[in-house]
Amino acid sequence: IQPTQPTREISLPRRSLRDCLSEDLRRLDPDDLFGKVITQGFGK
Q1: What residue spans of 1-44 are helical by DSSP H?
Q2: pLDDT in tens, the chain (44 residues)
Q3: Is 41 a domain residue?
Q4: Residue 5 DSSP one-character state
Q5: Does residue 3 belong to any structural domain of this protein?
Q6: CA triple 23-15-19, angle to 5 deg
Q7: Per-state percent for the chain, helix, strand, coil, to nearest 5
Q8: Positive or negative: CA dihedral 33, 38, 40, 44
C-alpha cells in the first residue's frame, strides 16, 4: 500500500485446488531438522 496512490482493484483468475497444491509441492525443500527428529528422536 502506498499512501499517496489510490486503491485499485485488479481481477485475477481463480486457481483450482490442484494448481495451488502443485505449486506448493514444487516449492517444498527438505526439512533437515524434522528429518533428524524423525530418524534420531529428541534427546537420545
Answers
A1: 17-26, 32-40
A2: 788 999 989 999 999 999 999 999 998 888 999 899 999 987 75
A3: yes
A4: S
A5: no
A6: 30
A7: 45, 0, 55
A8: positive
